[in-house]
Every structure is written in C-alpha cells, then in structure tokens.
Amino acid sequence: MKSFKLIVHQSSFSTSDLIINLKDYPGLKEKDIVEIYHPDNDYPRLLLQVAKVDAAGRGRDTISVEQSIATTFQLRTFADVYVNIVNVADVALDSVELTFKDQYMGRSEMWRLKNNLVSTCVYLNKKIEYCGGAIRCQVYEMWSQGDRVACGVITEDTKIVFRSSTSMVYLFIQMSSEMWDFDIHGDLYFEKAVNGFLAELFAKWKKNGSNHEVTIVLFSRTFYKAKSLEEFPQHMKECLQKDYRGRFYEDFYRVAVQNERYEDWSNVLLQLRRLFTDYQKIVLQYHERPNMEIPTAINSTAAQGNFLEVLNMSLNVFEKHYLDRCFDRTGQLSVVITPGVGVFEVDRELTNVTKQRIIDNGVGSDLVCVGEQPLHAVPLLKFHNKDNNLNSIDDYSMPHWINLSFYSTNKKVAYSNFIPRIKLPPRKSQEPLRKMYEDERKGKLLKEDEYMHNSIFDYDAYDAQVFQLPPAHSTCVQRVTRTKKTSVAGLEGMNRRSPPTSTMHHRKMSDPDIHHTVADILTNSGSSNKQGAYDTNSDATDSPLSSNRLSPRSSISSHKPVIRTGRALINPFDPSHVTVKLTSNRRRWTHIFPKGPTGVLIQQHHYQARPAGEPASRTEEHRENNIPKENGTSIINNNHSIYQVDGNVMGRKRMISASGTLAVLGVASTTPSTTNNASLALLWGATGEQEWTPALTTANRAIGVDWKSLTIPACLPITTDYFPDKRSLQNDYLVSDYNLLPDDVNADFAKNRAIYKEPLTTMEVFKELVSQRLAQGFQLIVGVNENEVIESHCPSTAAPPPSKVAPQIGKQSNAAPTKRYLLSIGRIFHKLTLVGSTITVTRYRPRHPYPPFNIHYRYRFHAPNHDTYEVSWVSFTTEKLETYNWNYMDHYICTRGDTDFALVEVNIMALKYWRFRTLLLPLNNPATKQIMEDETTHCDIYPTPTRHDLDQLTDGFLKMTEQYFNKVKRPNKQRQLSPTKSLNTSQSHKVAVKTVLERTQSQTGESDDTYDDGVLEPKLKANATLVEVVERMRSPTLGVGFLQQTVSLPSHTFVSIYAIHWLQANMEGVTYEKATSIMEKLLQERMICHASGDTSKRFVVGYYMYHILPQKKEKDSMPEYVKPLGDLQSFENEWMEVEVLGPRSPLVPAGSITGAIDISGSSPVTDDTGVPAFLCDNIDTSYMQLGSDSDMPLYKNTHLDIDVNNKSDRIEWGHARYQATFRPDQAYEMCIQWAVASGNIVAELIFGWARKAQSCRLQMVPIPADPLALPFTLKSDPLRGPIYVPLNEEPLLRSKTALFEGFPEVTWLERLFLFQEAIVGRFGFIKCTVESTSHEAGVGDHLYVHVTGNMFILIPTTVKSEQKALRTKPANRPLNSRYPVHPEAAPSPHEGYITRHVTGKNKDDYDNSRRMGFLWSWNHMISKKLKSSQTPATGDEGFQMRMLRDFKHFCANHEQRLSQFWDQCWELREKAHGIQSC
What we know:
Layout: E1 2-9, E2 18-19, E3 33-37, E4 46-49, E5 62-66, H1 67-72, E6 80-85, E7 95-100, H2 107-117, E8 121-123, E9 127-130, E10 135-144, E11 147-149, E12 151-153, E13 159-164, E14 168-174, H3 189-208, E15 213-224, E16 241-242, E17 248-260, H4 266-284, E18 297-299, H5 307-318, E19 332-338, E20 343-346, H6 348-361, E21 364-369, E22 380-383, E23 396-397, E24 403-406, H7 431-441, H8 459-466, H9 512-524, H10 544-549, H11 552-556, H12 639-643, E25 683-684, E26 690-691, H13 707-711, E27 719-720, H14 726-732, E28 733-740, H15 742-752, H16 762-775, E29 779-781, H17 786-790, E30 819-825, E31 828-835, E32 838-846, E33 854-862, E34 870-877, H18 886-894, E35 914-922, H19 926-933, H20 947-965, H21 981-984, H22 1026-1034, E36 1053-1055, H23 1056-1066, H24 1072-1084, E37 1088-1090, E38 1102-1103, E39 1105-1108, H25 1128-1134, E40 1138-1140, E41 1195-1201, E42 1213-1219, E43 1221-1222, E44 1228-1236, H26 1239-1255, E45 1258-1263, E46 1283-1286, H27 1290-1293, H28 1308-1322, E47 1325-1327, E48 1342-1346, E49 1351-1355, E50 1359-1360, H29 1361-1366, E51 1385-1386, ...
Parallel strand pairs: 1-5, 7-13, 14-15, 14-19, 17-33, 19-21, 20-22, 21-24, 27-29, 40-43
Antiparallel strand pairs: 1-6, 2-5, 3-4, 3-6, 7-10, 8-12, 9-10, 10-11, 15-17, 15-18, 16-17, 22-23, 25-26, 28-32, 29-30, 30-31, 31-32, 33-34, 35-44, 35-45, 36-39, 37-39, 38-40, 41-42, 42-44, 46-52, 47-48, 48-49, 49-52, 50-51
Helix pairs in contact: 2-16, 3-4, 5-6, 20-26, 23-24
C-alpha cells in the first residue's frame, strides 16, 4: 500500500482511466489491478487496471484518474489516496449487467464482446466500445459474492447480462369482465392498470431513457349463450370457435398502438381511456343488426380468457426477427396485464406449444396482475379437464417461463390494513333458497345414492395420498399423448368405453372393466402405486350399467382408490412436495439473475422471508422417481417430466442427484450439500432457485413488480449450465457427428475460385461455428464437468463410421483436444471439438422428439385506421429445431459463403439468415413538398414523370451501381460525363477530350442537333465498318471510356448502356435500336465479349460490363492485356449487373410489331395525345400480366463485402439479392442478406449507401418482407392487416350499366385496372415488383409504393385463365400447385379478403359491382435513422395520415373529385378523337 497525491484528467487528454508512473510503485506492472481510496472515506473503493505507465511531467508520487470516474467515486482532487495492488480473485465479479440503446446487438456480438472483456476492470456507468465503436454499451450493475458492488474485474466465469433500452415490446391488456370491477380502494381495475401501472411504467421508461418500440393491444374473449351453431345468423359464423365444453366464443383484439416510439406516452394513456369507455359495448354488440335475433354475448373472466393465444400472437412476430431486421432495437418482450390473479384455464396442448416457443425463441414474457395476490402459488395454469367424469381430478401446472409481477397501488385505507384475497360470489336472489328449504322439508335435498357417505372417506388421508410422490423404483406408467385427461390411468391403445350419455347421472360412473384391466396391469408390474382418484359408486343400485357390467373384482374394490398414473398432482396451496426433473429449458434464463447472499439466484422484486427451515422428512426415496425404465416393453416416453410438471424446482447451486433428478426435500445422500440450509421447499419462480413459502402471500412479503425487466428487458443469456448426464445421454439421445477440415475444404474451393479470397483459418472457422449457433438461439453450457462429457460417446449408441478424412477422436488417446464448446437449445445439444486442424461437430438430439404442433386459430382484430373488427386467422407451430441443416450451414461458413452453399430457403433447408429489404425510390418530388407545406392542398397532385425525370433517375441509378454497389473506378484522364443533356451543355468543356454522350432522339423522334461545336473530330460515318467502330471506341480521347482494370475485370472493359449512348453521339444517324444492333454484331463477330469471358449471352443494355477482344494481329502488340475470368458464376458473384429498360407502356405501339423497347419510350400512363390509357383504343391486353418481358430472371445474387471500414474483429460477408432489371418508372428492390456479419456493421454499410443514394437523386427506404401482412402468408404478422379503401363507382356510371360500356367487353378488366392505376399514380404511387410472398401461383396482383416510401397500395385483379395459360413465367419461379385455378377467372386471395370485408358474403359470390377498391398498408420499417433533411415526408406521421384521409375522400367521391377526374379524362379522349376525325 502506498500513498499518492490524486489529480484528474479529461478523457481528451488521455483515453486511459488511470495514469501512474511505475517507478513510483515498486512491483507494479502493466495489467495489474489496483484499488484507490481515501483513507478516511467509507465510500466503495475504486478498482482500476494499470494500462498506461509512462506519464512524464506529472510530478513524483502522483496518480491521475479520469475526471468522471473520480466524481462517481467521490475522490477529491489533490487529496491523498492509498493505492494498493489487489488479488484478482478477491474482486472477481459473479455477474455484470450491460445496457445498450438504439442498436441491434446479435448474440454472436455479445459473446465476442464478452470474450473481449475478460480480465478487464469495470466500474459503474463505464462506457464500453467494441468493433471500432460500432457497438456501444454501458455498465449498469455488478454483483460479487452476493452483493451489489461498484467496481470489479470480469473473469472467465463472470456471467454477463445484456439489457436493451430499445426493445420490441408488446403490451397486451386483458379486457376481461373484472376490468369493470372495483378494487379495495374503490378504483376500477382498468384505472389501476392504466392510470396506475402503465403510467408508472411509462414514467420509469422516461427516467431511464428507454426508447422501446411498442405495440399495445386490448384483448378479450366473448362467450355466446347458444347450444348449437344453428342459433347464429350467417354473418356471425365465420369466426366462431368452440371450446372443450362446447361453448361458442369469439376472440377480439383491438390494436391501440402499433410499433410506435414516443418520447411522451401520456397521450397514449388518454387514448386507452377513450377506448375503454365503449370497448365492452362494441365487442358485445358487434354483431347486432336490426330485426335479427342473436345469442346473448358475455365477456369472459380473466381465468377463461385468451391468455395463451395472445402470447402466441406476439411469438408469431418475434420468431421472424431475422426477416425484417431492424438495426436500432434488440430484444423482445411480451407483457400481459390482467385484472385476474394469475390463474388461467388453458388447453394442455396449447400450453406445450407456447412454452416451447417462448423458451426456444428466448422471448421475455411478463405477466402483470393488478388483482390481489391469492394465497396459493401463482402463476397457475389449470388444464382444461376434457374428461366428463365428475370425479376426475383437476391438473395444474406452474409455468416457470412466465415472470410474474403483482402491481399494487400504495394507497392506504385509514381504518384497516386487511387485504381481501378472494372475491365473494355475487348474492343470489331469495327464490332458489326458499325452494331449497322446501325441498329439504320434503326430505328431498339429495337422493340417497347421489352423495358420498361420510363414513367411507377419510378426506385428509385422501389428500395426503393424491399429493404424495410415487414411491421410488416403481415403474411409472405414463401416457404418451396427454390430450384427454381421464380419472384412470390411461394406457395408449386401450379403448375407454364411456357409458352412453343418456344414462349418466350427476356423478358419472367410470367403466368398471377398465379399472379391472388397469389394476391388473399395474399389480402385475409390481407397483405399489395405489393412490389417486377414487371409484365413484359406493351404492350402485340404480345405475343401469352397473347391474350387468360389474365384474366381481370391481365390486370388491369399490372402496379402494382407483390407480392413477405415477405423477403427483400439484397442490397450489402447498407446492413444496413436488419433485421436478431438471431440464435445459428450466435453466435457459437462470443466468440473468444475480446470486444473493446465500448463494441462491434471486429475483429482486420478490420481497421474501428467510427460507423455511423445517427438517426434511424423506430424503432417499424419490431420487429415482421420474426416470422411466427404457426397456422394450413399456411404452414410456420421457416427455412428461420435461413438459408437464411445471412445478419449478431447481437445485441450489445445481444439486443434481445421480439420476439427473433433483432431490428436493433435503439433499440426497449422494450429493454434497453446498448450502447451509438442508431443506428445500418448492423452488419456484423464474430463477428456479427460490422457495415458495406461504409467507410470500402476506401483506409485507408480497411479490412486487419487476420494473427492471419491464424497463430494460434482459436479452436471452449466452450461457446456461445444464447438460444431461451420461446415463440420460445414452438412453434418451441420438448421437451423430461429422468432421470439418477447413484447410482441406478451402484448398479445394480456392482452386475453383476465380477470385482469390483469403480463406478462414481453422481457428476462425471454429469460433464462427460457435458464433453462428449462438446467433440462432443456442447457449454455451458452462460449469459442467468436462470429463463427463468427453466420454459421452457411449457404446450403446451406434458409433459413427470412421471418417475418411480425419482419424476418429476417440482413438487419439494422446491428442488432447485443444478447444471444446458445449451448446444447447431446447433438448438439442451440440459439442464442438477442435483437435489439431480437425473440427468435430457432435449432435445430440432427443430419441423421442415432441410431436410437431400446428394449431389453427381464428379471431377478429381491429388495427389502427381500420373501421371494423376484421376476421383473420393464424397458425401456431413449434419449430422442429432438430431438423435444422447444420452440416450445410457449417460448410457455408467454412467456405466463406461460396456459391455452392448459397443462402437459400428451399424446403429441405429452412436456413435462418438475416435479411434487410430496401427499395430505391426517387429522392424528392415537388408535390410532396407542396403537401407538406400547405395544409389545404389535396394529395392527388403528383404529376406524371416526364422524360427528363426518368432519364435523371436512370443516370442516378447507374451512378449508384457503379460508384457504390460495384465500387468501380474510372481512370481520371477521361471523366465519363453523365449521359443526360443537361450536363452536356455546360460550356466550360469545349475541348476535344470531352466524351460526348448525346441522345439523338427526343420524345417526338426527330433528330436533335444540339451538341456543342467543340467536337473537333468528325463523327463516324453511318456506314463505318465494325473495325472502325472498335478503333474509335479505343481512342484515348474520344473513346467509350474504360473502367479501371481490377482483379476480376479484363482490360478495356466498358459499360453497355454508356456504349450505346456513345454510339448515338459519335456516329451519324444512329438511333437507339441501331446502336443496339451494331453492338450485337460486334458481339457476334467476337470483337467484344462479356467481361466474364462468357460468350453465350445476348448483348444486354444496362449496367453490364463488356470488353474489347484483341484481334489476332494485335495479340503481340498488347502485352499488358488482362484476360477475363472465364467463369460467369464467379463473375456474377462479384459484380452487380442490371439490365436497364424503358417504362412499360400499357398501349400497343401503332406501327411496330417487334415490340422492341426503347429506353426513351413514351411515358406509360397516356398516349401521345394525352388520353389516359384506360380510355385508349389500342390497349395492350398483356399489360396486366406480371410476366417479365425480358429473358432475365427476376432477381440475381451477388457476394457483398460488409465490413468496408475494417471495424470488425473477424472476417464478415453477406449477399445482395437485387432485381435483374431496372425501369425508371418503378421502384427498384435490393435485399441485403447475411449470416456471418455483425448487425451494427451491416447497418453502417446500409446507412452509408442511403446517404450516398441522395447524391444520386435517389432515396433508399427499407421495406417489410411482407408489405401487406395478409393472413394468407405464412410469415404474416397476426396483428397487422391492410386497410380496405373502396372505390365508389356509382357516380361514374350515370346512365351506363357498366363503367366501360362502349368498349369491347374483353378489355373491361384491363381498363378498370388501368383506371385504378391512374388514380394511384395521381397520388404519387409507383409500381414495385416485389416477389409476391402470399401466393406464388402468379395471380396478378399489382403492388405500388408511395414515392416517399411511407405506404403501399395493392390493386387486386382477376386474371382471365386463358390469358394465364399464355403467359410466360419468369424462369426462376416454379409454378406452384397450391392454389387451384378456377376455369373462368382466378381471383386473388386478396380479392377474397376484400369481398369479405365489404359485403360479409361468402368468398364465392363474386359481386362485380362491390369489388372495386384498394388495399392500403403502412411501411413500418422506416426508422428515425433513415430520416433526413432531404426527405422530410419519409416517416412523417402527419403526412401519412393526410395521404390516407385524402385518398379515402377521393375514392368515395367527396366534393365530386372522382367524377371530375373521370370527366376530364373523357374530355381528353373526345378532344383527341375530334382532332383525328377532322
């Protein structure tokens, strides 16, 4: 210890936290940890790591600490401090919590950051940067030896918890009937939930600076009093569901807020109060129609509500997190706020699905009850009892995957501190009571044989028996499927004949034969397992069944209890007697909890008494309880122990007894006790290490609210600590493995690679395999005894065949593995081992996987801006994690994403990889500016883009492709001028060096001689030979302009579209068509060739690269000539090449039959005379078809360099999937895909592009994978849906019967479509060909996006089938047979959606008059980061709402706007016809 004088420095002076001179402290060396403190101060001592050692000129015996740290730790400047070297072990941290905000941090980044932090020193609020500042987080809290500390050292064993202040949060408010009840303070429970809980939550968010993306949904279930479906009118039937008791119900969801981020949430509270006032009325009276009888509707109680369904709704969104990857949030949280007390009646199968999905997806789920906490353990799920037997026993489950909070206001009642825990039943009228007394007087209260004789039953003994554990070593009989719950032990394949219902009495009889057989089976199997339900009939006289069916055996045993399965039921009032098997699911979240003083994980919002210390009663006997015998005869499945019993028991310090089960009541003798407390009551709650004691329910020992989890939710921890023991691995798991030799694999691939890329080293591949598994939801298993795992290749499993490449690991007894990682998700375990240069992947998957679930669910939801509760439907499915193709993924990583291992979603390979879809749109439109500035203006003022606009867009796109996507350079000596005129007329360049790129055709088609007189060289003659053309192209001053030669580009590479422009400018009388044919000829004559060296393709105009081939005689004179790659696939994997086409016209050009597309083609909406296309005579009937008119595939893929600024600590790459053709009048789509890249670095690349796009007059907007979110799509968001905007054609018909009467009827559909297209065009929408996600049968739906990128419109169309057959399919989309095509017209599913919305009729009644309209949907992917000063309207809520309102008004013909537009169009037509006729 030594005394120093303390001074402080700013971080600008030095980046290190501590500056100390080593000479001043003998024995101090770099990387040492020192503590610094004032001798007279009790404040926590500061720990810092010695990093920088030379600090000259600071004076002797002086240390300098960074100023903000000194302030935090109350260190006084110029005072004396003691400096002392500490032992790292004494200050090691158990756990550290890091918070981060407004960024996406993948699990792989978390792991790499953790490794980076090992053996560093952290202190409160320390800011941590990683990957060159791309990833930023801050230290929030630290725990060491059971206490919170202010600083400490991170070691290998420190658990790091990541908490995100910007998560995706779903708040579900359960609007069950209790919401309208009053609590003990006289507040409605709704007021308690909203004015109390939510107001407090939002205040905490604000204080903490949380910036969550929130969706708030009110939900409820309505029951109908009806016996059969016939009682319902037709319009109600489409969404009715029926529950296990035969009751009809409907579920309602009201989305109040959708994906919003607000600084101030007070307006939302206001909005929720407004919704509350008539919520119940709207939902209960939703179906009422005048003069129609409908069954009475009642709102359900909280316990019977749609609690699990709601969680699954959010999971359907959360599990697709990799599809619409947002770069400014991480983490997912569902919060259900209920007025209940934490008890729910649920379906067992749905519980299993929900549990598995919540755990596998690593989603935080919180349940906040505003009701009073009951006197039993909660949360409690009561399974639907599908057995009709009156005496069948209710089964409960206590889910460990729900984090429970009870919210209570801190109001005080002056006169009492009593808290009522139960609700009194409502008081009934006097009538039934009187009747009952009369009955009693007549002696008829109950028939003699209808109640149980008191003498028979000792109830206490019975209770003790039900909740008693099965004795040890008994063979448990379980049912494999647990769908029906019966009062007897059900065995698979046994017919349970239940008596006909007509003869049933109040207490139904069980069928005696079955008791007989089951009892026999159980007795024979040597079980002493007599416990459980009791037989019903003590007095079997008046049952018609019993007289002839009673076997002697069952009559004798009528008072003996019926034998139940070997599974103790949970007693919610005293759950401490339940033994639960430890599983990986149960330990998935445990590492986010800190260890308390007793060494037990604690949840900080449980205010709890000291654990109960009563001595253990039975210790040994249930060690073996839940392990079924795996012999061939019994049909036993290990399912139930993991799935069914959810009494949450977990070992203190993981005391696992030999069989993998926990010894709960007291420590089994084989396990050394690590706690001082020998008794273990039920370990309950999310940590699985706390006891549930009745003390938890008393007033001063209640469960509070886990504000931390609701304010800064934790991300799924990257570590866990459960691995099955040897015996379980042998019996319950299948083992398979494969070897990877990265060096050998890469040697092969490097040979075939046209462009050499540095391959990953074996170590890099190894780390990446771990990274990738973490990214897909696996966790690293820590703290497991290594030796047990090494030998887990047991002889009982068939040994894998020895690999040809690498020697089997088991045989190399001498070669110790250099590195090993264990990972798990669900019941799947992976062991990755690296020995020398061989990586072995060993996979363990369960022998008996859970059956796949697929639960269909129909519901009604009302999203913002919608008018009604619409019917929708969704499927809840569990993912089959064991079938994921890891072998393929590992090879993809190993080969750096070689084209042989493309990231694809084929059915066989549902690979998960991350995607970000973008559209390139025109940067700004004067109309948008006008709408933003002037409140009164209508929104249909977008002009038809002129020829000049389209040219500018094409130029911008070409520049973007060249400079940013392809990053090609041009040599400086000949700056390529842009091919538009506006730039060419600049007078400064009068020199001959200028490359003239003139278009010689204007819109009208006369030649246009406005090029400068500065061109000294004469133009090429119209009849110049090909050789002369090539010569001129090569000219250093007047040539076509070559790209700089790089790795994969040959010499003399030029871009096809620029060459066309160059020919038009440098050769006499060349039109666009002629220029193209000259280039075609050059290609055929082998004078030019595609830059990849491929000769099979046609000449494509666009950003396509070609090079001039050296002719035979020139071969010698060009020594520096670089040959092309000669490999088209590799070339396309490196370069982005796009065909550029002109706008598509809906009209058939008069004179031309060829249909050649002129890039400078006429604008698409009108013909030359200005008549709108839908009124022209020469309509092109194939215009509506989406078939590509080019032989290109719809999309192409290329490799993408992600880490352009070299920030990452690893090699990263991705892929771009881009549209193969660009049209200036359409949005251009590009999708960025990656599996091996850090989210923040991908984000930097994309935001960089978005900034650069603006200099090319384009804006880059992210779009969702599924823009319309219709329920037909597998991946659609269940709480999102399009807004239907009907088109009111009544006023346009006037005296006609059909809108386009007078035109040939075959063109009516096309004309209607063109009319709708003209309307969306006026509102600033442009076409985007997005791969139809909803149905690949190619039903012609047309999607449009607004120029600001804010919204989409879909025009649903019906395609006539004979045209459908003629249509050419794009090559890359196989026709899917899932959607049968009707012979006369194939309606799109979207149309069905519309028809249902508008008329509520069946989908089959096509009522043409009502089906016109649009589907409108918002682009929810636009985030704040993508807004810029140049695009003020993008993401502007006011602008979006105005557009929708105005569009609805226009379509509804408010102020005659639609009719006026219609009349103007007809006037134009008449005018044009008038001109022609005279």
